[in-house]
Amino acid sequence: MEESIIKEKFGMNVKLNRRSFLKMAGVASGTALLAACAAPVAAPGEPMAEDYIVNHWTWLSASDAEVWGVHIDNFNEAHADLGIQIERLEVSSNEYKTKVLAAAATGQAPDFGWADAGERADFISDGVMIPVEEHLAEAGLDWSDFTALSVAKGRYPQFNNQLYHMPLDAMTWQLEINLDHVEEAGLDPDSPPTNNDELLEWSKALSVQEGDTVVRSGFLMTGSGLHVAFIWGLVAHQMGFRITNDELTEVCINPDAAKEAAQWTLDLFDVHKVATRDVSDRYKAFGTGEGSMFLTGPWTLNGYIEQGLNFSVEFTPNIGGELATRLSVGSQEMYIQEDESRYARSAQALTWLSDESFLWTTQGRGAACRQSILDREDYKEHRWEYRQPFVEGMEFATFIPPKLKAAPDFKYYTSPNLVHRIIDPVWQGDKSVDEGVDELCAAWEELLAAE
Fold first, then answer.
1. Which of the following CATH numbers is that of domain 174-324+416-449: 3.30.1360.40, 3.40.50.1100, 3.40.190.10, 3.90.180.10?
2. What is the secondary structure of 250-273 as a DSSP string?
3. In this predicted model, what pLDDT tens digit does every residue of 172-205 receive, in sequence order?
4. pLDDT tens digits for 329-359?
5. Which one in 48, 164, 404, 443 has a CA-CA gap of 20 to 30 Å to 242?
6. Closest CA to 234 of 300, 119, 320, 329
7. CB atoms closer than 10 angstroms to residue 171
8. How far apart are CA 255 and CA 417, in angstroms?
9. Structure pTM?
10. Which CATH class for the 5-172+330-391 domain?
């Protein structure tokens, strides 16, 4: 019989599934270095000999990571004489979940860390996360100031509708366009593509080939992994495909739309020849001019603006018939601690990071989740020509992953996961569209049955 490591540590009635248990048991010994980052806490009634350290883990890696680092530094400067500091540790997104689970198993979980709200049902089920609403309210956070959508994204109906995330920014995916390439192709920058026909027309005009080789992608793609999967998933959603029904009782609603979208994706490479499979770093490719149009998120803005790239941001085109784009709410989550007194200090730090998130939501990443920031007169003065589509695109950001315990395997935009293992061979020509979609639907059906 398996015994939950977390239950042993915390005396909680937590049931850990076999997959999570094995992951933690296999890597627990490798978390010693990460656990060493946790500062010692004084015994009750004893004074702190040094600053109280709140441990924060982050998987941010694009140019948004630099702005987040500044935000953390600003907190530490503001609290230099107040006895509390945040220690930030960068952890690879591919390893984040495993390392948090392992750290929690040894009683050394970070205090809080990054998450996409609504996509952590597995952590909650495993007893790794705690509800945040009351802790943050006690620290002075004004929940009434948050947008309704951002808060709703962090609630889980299957866990008594409790709130497990503090929203920081709301992100949509929109179309970035290299304006130098547009001028070179003789296109009108004031009339960007808004539908499938226009997108393909622009992609062909912007692409550059040497013989049969695409050396500049009119529409930037990758040949495997999360980006090509995301583009396929978005187009499938626009064409009417749904990963699950609203009740979360069935998977693969309208699979023919998913197959049509997969063929549309393949045609970008093989029929229209507006993309190449040889792109490994999509961010670098767009920044160096190897791609002309890039469907991505606001975390890219700071880097491209700082490097002086001549580009614009436009709304995601309606490719499949129903205008939609991806919604993600960047949030902070609090992890289980042996010493429950740590929650109050974490809540104090998180409240400040939210109250002072103007910098983060104007230079770091997505739209503010605090109405008081959205209402500021100067909110639209900071790079608004780039940020506007990401903010106003919230109106059609309806492409949202389901809130399931196996959520990572139901997502297109994460790596590596079930979607990529099954679908990547389709993009490489080693599996047919029908085989790939049917196999993925069967795997999703098994996962849903295990929920």
1. 3.40.190.10
2. -EEESHHHHHHHHHHHHHHHHTS-
3. 999 999 999 999 999 999 999 999 999 999 999 9
4. 999 999 999 999 999 999 999 999 999 999 9
5. 164
6. 320
7. 24
8. 20
9. 0.82
10. alpha beta
